[in-house]
Amino acid sequence: MQVVIVESPAKAKTINKYLGPGYEVIASYGHVRDLPSKDGSVDPEQDFRMLWEVDPKAQKRLNEIASAVKGADALILATDPDREGEAISWHVLEVLRHKKALKDQKVERVVFNAITKQAVLDAMKAPRAIDVALVDAYLARRALDYLVGFTLSPVLWRKLPGARSAGRVQSVALRLVCDREREIETFVAREYWSIVARLATPRHEEFEARLAGADGKKITRLSVGTAEEAKAFRAALESAAFRVRSVEAKPLKRHPQPPFTTSTLQQEASRKLGLAPARTMQIAQRLYEGVDVGGETVGLITYMRTDGVDMAPEAVAATRSAIAKQFGPKYLPGVPRKYTTKAKNAQEAHEAIRPTDPARHPREAARHLDGEQAKLYELIWTRTVASQMESAELERTTADIEAKAGARVLDLTATGTVVKFDGFLTLYREGKDDEDDDEESRRLPAMNAGEPLDKREITTTQHFTEPPPRYSEASLVKRMEELGIGRPSTYAAVLAVLRDREYVKLEKKRLVPEDKGRLVTAFLESFFKRYVEYDFTADLEEKLDEVSAAELDWKEVLRAFWQDFSAAVEATKDLRVSQVLDALDEMLTAHIFPPKEDGTDPRLCPTCGTGRLSLKMGKFGAFIGCSNYPDCRHTRPLTGGENAPEGDGKRLIGLDPESGEEVTVRSGRFGTYLQLGEGKDGEKPRRSSLPKGLAAADVDLETALKLLALPREVGKHPDDGEPILAGIGRYGPYVQHGRTYANLEDADDVLAVGLNRAVALIADKTSRGRGGRGAAAPGRTLGDHPTHGGAITVRPGRFGPYVNHGKVNATLPKSTDPEALTLAEAVALIDAKAASSPAKPARGGRKAPAKASADADGAPKQAAKKAAPKKTTTKKAGAKKASARKPGAKAAE
Q: Which of 33, 266, 356, 416 has a CB 3.0–4.6 Å from the CB of 444, allowing a cystine?
C-alpha cells in the first residue's frame, strides 16, 4: 500500500479513483504547522531558529496520516505545485519523522498541474525529492513576515492607539491606496479646450478633424487653455479654406495576449465579470479541483496559482486543433506561439491557467457548472484559445489637413482605423481593448492629396483635467505586480486583510482608505519609511527568488534585513507622542484640513474662534481638537467636511416640532448615534443608534425623529390583541410580540414594516422554537461528510453564516461567501472546529488561559489588558457599551 498526501478532501477523493487499489489518498487540509503566536517563535539571537507548532485542528488528521504511513510501503507527497505546496509536504514529512512513523518507507514528491487522470498518472511516473531551495524560500518569507508583524505591530499599538497591525506586504499595498488618495486630494484641475472641425469631401462624405497645429507650432491636448484662445482659433477656422495636404495608410498588427496567470485572471475577471479577486480564486479553485462530468470528477482548468504564461506542448497542439476545427485554417498561425513571462520576480516555471481539455467547449462545460463557474471557465477557455490564434490585421489612415485663414495656416488631423482581418479578435478582446472599439470601426472617407474640403461645422469644447482614479481591486493587483510587490497568489488575501482591518473600504468598486489606514501609513512613512518603499519591498522579493533558485542562502537574507530593521525599531522607543502627532498632522494636512471654499483658515477653531485645530490622540484613537483645551473642548472626527459633528462631537439636524429640542447626530465612544435634547432633571436624553448601512451624513430630520421614536407599535396581533413593536436592538432591527423577537433583514424595514409581514415573521419565529429561539433555519445542504456521514449545511446565524454537521457548528470566515461555499471547504471548517473544541472542564475546574493568535503575516493579535479587581460602581447614564472585540484578524503575506 502506498499513501498519497494531497491538500483537499475533494482532490483526495478524485485522485483515489484515478489511482485505484494499492493507494490510499489522504488530505492534509492545507497547512498542518505554523509558528506559535508568541514572541520568540523566530529567534534572531539563535540564528533565526524557528519553533513550529502543530495546528490543533490538524492534530487528528496527522495522527491518521501517521497511522496509515506506519503500515505503508511508500509515502508520496502530492501537495500543490507551488511554494506553499512544497512547504506543506515538508511540514508533513517533518511531523511524521518526529512521530517516528517513517522507517524504511520510500518518500517521494510528485506534482501535477491539473487534476485529470492522465496528468496524475504521468506525475506518478516522475517522482522527485522535496525541493530544499523552495522550502528555504518559504522559511525565509515566513520568518520575515513574522519578524515584521511581531516587531512592528506592538510599536503601532503603543504609539498609535486604534491601529491593528502592520505587515511586510500588507502595509506597502495600503500605502499604494493612500498615496493615490493623496494624489486625488492635492490634484488641481486644469482647463483646456478641444477644437474640432466637421468637414466634407467633394463627394459629400463627412468626417471630423482635430486642430493639431498653428503657424508652425504643434498643439497638444492641453495647449489651448482658455476660452479666449479657443474663440480665436474658432474664428480663424470659420473663415479658413480647407484642403487635404496628405493621406497615409499604415498596416498594423495586433497580437493576442498570453494565457492567464493568477494576476491577469483576477484583473480580467474583475473587468469583464465584476468578480472580486478573492471570489475569482474561490471559483477557480473549484474548477481546478473538479466537477462531475458524466459520473466522473474532472478538473476543468490547470493550477490557478501561477506566474507562468507557457503551456505544455500537448496543450498547445490540442488548442491549435480546436482553432482549426472551429475557425478554419486562416485563423491558425503557421507555427505555435511561444510566450515568456515578463515579470522579473516570476515563480518557478509553471504552466499558465488553461483548460485541461481545450476541446471541451464552454457550452458543453456549462451544463455541469453554476453561473459564475461557467462564466469564469469561458473566460479562461477563450483567452487560452485566442492566445494561439492568428494576429488581427488593421489599417490606420491618417489625413493631414491644411486650413488657410488669411496669413495664418492651421493644421488639422483626422484618423480612422479599420479591421482588415479580425484574427483572434473574432473570439476575444481584452477588457481594456473594448475602449478602442469606436476607433477600430471609424473609417475615413476616401480622399486624395490636394483636393478641397467643405467646412460644415466648427465646435469648441471646454474640458478639465481629472485626478487619477482610485484603485479598483483589479488595478491594485496590476500595480502591485508591476512593482514586484508580494506574490500574485496572495494578492486576494492581502486585499481581504486590508478590508478586515478596516484600513480600506470598497465604494462603487473602488478602494478608499479609511482614516485608520491613513494614520498607519503616515506613521510608517514617517518612522519606517524604508520598509514601506516600493523598491525595497520588490528588492526583497527578488532576494527570495534567488533563494528559491538556490542562488542565495536564506539566512543571509534574514541577517541583512534584521540588522537594519531591529535598529529602526529600537530608534522609536524614545519617540514621544507629541513627535508622532506632529509628523502625522503635517503629512495628513490635505486630508484632515482641506481648504475651505470661503478661503478662511481650515485650522481655526469654530467654537472659540482663537484656537488652532490639530491632530490629537485619545484612548480610542485619533481625533481633531482645539489648542485651547481645556478652556475649549471642541472636538471632531478626523474627516467629514461639513457633515462632520462639530463642537462637542455633534451636528445639529433640526428641532423637534413638538418639544422644540435639538435633534443632533453625535460621535460617541462606541459609534454614531442620534440624541434628542440634553436631558432634564438628571434624566437621560432619548437616544437611538443608527441602523447599519445608514450614514450620519444621510440622516435628515424626518428620519431622525422616526428613529428616536422607536420602538414603534406596528399594530395589534390578530390572535390576542397584544401590540407588535418594531425597534433596533443589540442584534439589529427586529419586530417583537410579547417575549418573541424576529429579526428584520433590512434596516429600512424597521420604519416601514407593516402588520401583515410582522405577524408572519412572528409566526415563523414561534414555529421554530420556544421564544423564537428554537431550531435554526434549515439552510442549504452541501452534501454528506465524506468520513463521518451525515448532512453538512450552511446556515444564517445571529452572528453571521456558519456550517453545521450534527452538533458541530463552525462560523464562516468573514471573507467567505456562503452562497459559494463548497463541500470541501465546509468539511475543512467542520473538522477543524471538531478538532479544536476542548473537553468541558470539570465543575469547579479551571480554564486554561487562552492562547494568543497571530496574523498570517506574523502580526500578533493585540493582547487584552489584565482584568482589574471588580469594584461596585454606579452605572453612568449613556449608551450601553458594546462588547469589545479583540483586534487582529488573519492577514496574508
A: 416
